[in-house]
């Protein structure tokens, strides 16, 4: 019964977040509410192993990430993916803006060790936070070792509302553009392209297109991506290869569009991954968090200002809206699956029309995903590896 009760607690936290997001028309993101529920829960009545008891531990998460990334690849095409160099540029230079302000102004307010400990976690994910935390413990700076962990726990809470606002403005802009008919012929064709491939998949009778068969092919593509990453010694990140191979194998007709939706397992995987991410909040304490509030807030404010200034300048040069540019830069505070969930929540709130949803998704989701992978999976780990040498 403990397992069932833990699963119920996790699902209540998630659906309350979804309801609040729907009620506020995505003004308050679902992940923000869910994260607050987890924090308060861990500080009061939730057991520290709640997520593991609900069967959403590290093993489940290691399955979720590659399968979900392959799935998201099936929602794109190669042309869309090739156009994401702008997202790469904005996300990388946005991180540079963060580094500039935090290492200069931040170092005047706090000591350099504090800034070096916090920044990689601010612009990255769990891996960069753990790298910094372990290194700080090894050199005896145990008082700072928890700062990267607190930063990784709370930077998303800071980033969720801002990103949601930017995405909502961009979605409204694109919706107006679509409704006015002011889109290019290429965009029009992409917005109305057929959902399914006409190659391998269409040759099979519908009775054989079972959920298990779809899921088996998605798993196979993830395994191929893993083998490829090992072959090239992780020169290209495994997560990026999962996304890329999802696109390629869908284009070849081996995978359906939106494969995991058709297999009926998408929501279960995404909920499990959300639970795993918020499991990290279980190590926090009110006292520990309060002691680092000044560092967390001031460095986050400086970091976001740096992202905004760089994205504003670069968006004009790259001919992107300033809202989309800023949202892409903010992906360093989100990571996967938060970048996907926030984008999807906003789109669902802005429109229910299938053609508009398709158009908004194709224009907003790819840059958000690619921007997130660029910062969280690559840049932040490189930054952490460099900063460790200066501590």
UniProtKB/TrEMBL annotation:
Keywords linked to the UniProt accession: Membrane, Transmembrane, Transmembrane helix
Protein name: Membrane protein
Species per Swiss-Prot/TrEMBL record: Listeria kieliensis
UniProt-listed InterPro entries: HDC-like
Domain of life: Bacteria
The keyword Membrane appears for this protein: yes
Transmembrane spans: 27-46, 58-76, 88-110, 145-167, 208-229, 235-254, 266-283, 289-314, 326-347, 367-388
């Amino acid at each position: 019964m403990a397992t069932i009760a833990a699963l119920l607690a996790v699902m209540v936290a998630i659906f309350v977040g979804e309801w609040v997001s729907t009620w506020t028309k995505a003004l308050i993101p679902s992940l923000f509410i869910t994260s607050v529920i987890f924090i308060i829960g861990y500080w009061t009545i939730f057991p520290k192993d709640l997520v593991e008891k609900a069967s959403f531990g590290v093993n489940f998460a290691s399955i979720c990430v590659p399968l979900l990334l392959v799935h998201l690849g099936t929602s794109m095409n190669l042309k869309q993916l090739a156009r994401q160099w702008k997202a790469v540029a904005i996300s990388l230079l946005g991180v540079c803006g963060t580094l500039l302000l935090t290492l200069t102004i931040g170092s005047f307010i706090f000591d350099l060790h504090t800034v070096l400990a916090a920044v990689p976690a601010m612009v990255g994910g769990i891996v960069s936070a753990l790298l910094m935390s372990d290194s700080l413990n090894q050199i005896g700076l145990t008082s700072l070792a928890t700062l990267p962990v607190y930063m990784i726990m709370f930077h998303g809470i800071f980033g969720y509302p801002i990103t949601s606002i930017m995405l909502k403005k961009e979605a409204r802009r694109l919706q107006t553009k679509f409704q006015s008919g002011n889109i290019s012929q290429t965009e029009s064709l992409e917005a109305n392209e057929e959902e399914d491939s006409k190659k391998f998949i269409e040759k099979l009778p519908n009775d054989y297109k079972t959920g298990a068969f779809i899921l088996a092919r998605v798993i196979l593509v993830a395994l191929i991506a893993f083998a490829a990453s090992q072959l090239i010694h992780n020169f290209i990140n495994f997560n990026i290869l999962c996304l890329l191979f999802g696109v390629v194998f869908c284009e070849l007709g081996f995978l359906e569009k939106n494969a995991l939706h058709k297999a009926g397992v998408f929501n279960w995987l995404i909920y499990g991954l959300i639970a795993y991410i918020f499991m990290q909040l279980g190590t926090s304490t009110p006292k520990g968090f309060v002691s680092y509030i000044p560092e967390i807030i001031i460095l986050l404010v400086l970091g976001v200002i740096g992202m905004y200034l760089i994205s504003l300048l670069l968006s004009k040069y790259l001919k992107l809206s300033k809202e989309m540019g800023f949202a892409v830069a903010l992906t360093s505070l989100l990571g996967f699956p938060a970048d996907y969930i926030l984008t999807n929540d906003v789109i669902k709130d802005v429109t229910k029309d299938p053609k508009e949803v398709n158009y908004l998704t194709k224009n907003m989701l790819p840059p958000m995903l690619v921007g997130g992978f660029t910062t969280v999976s690559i840049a932040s780990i490189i930054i952490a590896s460099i900063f460790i040498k200066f501590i």
